[in-house]
Design goal:
Strand content: 15-25%
Strand order of the largest sheet: 2-1-3-4
Structural class: alpha/beta
Number of strands: 4
Order of helices and strands: EHEEHHEH
Shape: globular
Radius of gyration: 14 Å
Number of domains: 1
Largest sheet: 4 strands, mixed
CATH topology: Macrophage Migration Inhibitory Factor
Distance between the termini: 26 Å
CATH class: Alpha Beta
Length: about 140
């Protein structure tokens, strides 16, 4: 389960809930792996406001995920895809994305969502269009 930490300046505060919804779809789609399959909602999301001078973009997203070989092969492409999708959905804002693949352990009393669906980015965006208040 990827851990997603968002630092955003105050001008983005009104978009927090929408960003969480978007991240629950696009991050599992971008980081899906045959070694560790993900489904929509398979993230831990943490959001914090920062001052305008604390980051050099409107939104900085730090993602930690298990280090799987197939993620390592095309990591830069996966990161760029996340940023491009966010730029397309939140056109007035700038984003920086940092993905770190780690060896780690994880346990939770709450089970990961288990949804059998198409995990392509296109399918994730289509689910957002269908189920969201976003105007995509």
């Amino acid at each position: 389960m990827p851990i997603v930490k968002v630092s955003a300046n105050n001008s983005f505060q009104a978009k927090k809930k929408i960003l969480r919804e978007v991240c629950q779809e696009i991050i599992p789609a971008a980081l899906n792996s045959s070694e560790g399959p993900l489904s929509p909602g398979c993230i831990q999301f943490k959001y914090s406001n920062v001052g305008k001078d604390d980051i050099n973009t409107d939104v900085f997203i730090e993602i930690k995920a298990y280090k799987f070989n197939d993620r390592l092969i095309d990591l830069e492409d996966r990161v760029e895809l996340i940023r491009e999708v966010l730029n397309g959905m939140f056109r007035r804002y700038t984003f920086s994305i940092w993905v770190e693949l780690v060896d780690a352990g994880y346990s939770s009393d709450v089970k990961d969502p288990s949804i059998n669906c198409d995990m392509s980015m296109e399918a994730a965006i289509n689910r957002l269009r269908k189920n969201s208040k976003l105007k995509l």
